[in-house]
Write a structure and sequence with these properties.
Adenine-n6-DNA-methyltransferase TaqI, Chain A, domain 2, 258 residues, 10 helices, four-stranded mixed beta sheet, alpha+beta, four-stranded antiparallel beta sheet
Amino acid sequence: MSKNEQQFSHVRRATTNRNTRISCYRHRGAEPLLDSAPEKGPSNLRLLKGVEVGSYKINRRLSQGKHEWFDEKCFIIDGNKRRPQAFAPRIATQRITGVDERKRIVAMEIGPPCYFADSTNSLAIGKACKYNARFILGLLNSKLMQWRFKVTSTNNNVGTNELENLPFPSLDFAKHSDLTHHDKMVGLVTQMLEAKKQEAAAVNESKGDYWKSKCATLERQIDTLVYELYGLTPAEIAIVEGTAPVSAASDGEGTGNE
């Protein structure tokens, strides 16, 4: 383990928390597909591809491929069982992202019913978990989680084991500070989801620029809240954001959690 990783031991320890009740799924195959099926129907359900998943948004215009739909009736006739997770709200992530991309974890909330293609992962929040899914969504898209993921990831896959081992915090809602952090995160993420919708729907450049700026402001506020949540020092924040001096970023000098 590098000095830099050791300096963030308080972030690593949060991984041991099992009370979050977050389950991760990798989706293998999604046949049969109906690429011309209507969006709504008793058996033709939405199929989500990784290329559709954006940070706090769904990409309506695809950079590759096309929208397709899942024929659940044929799926069941072929001897398969209905997937209960397809009928519950989940968080989707892309399963493959470039190792040099700014964001390795790209996450968005998805409402049911929806089947996931094998280019996606999903996170389901257990009934026993008191966290709002948008709290988890904010953590996943934050700069700190991007940094933490890159520390241990060696290829372009985003594995469910890697997602499950992310340091989700253990909050005690009996503590006012923990409850405040949680609720503030949910509020900021809710604003971000709406801002992303408005940015995509902007009818002119002026409105588009306004909502783009609004999203950038909200992203900074979410990152700041995450730093507070994990108790990072200014020196550690500089390492995460890539603004630390070369000696501090490479050797871990100047951080206060040895």
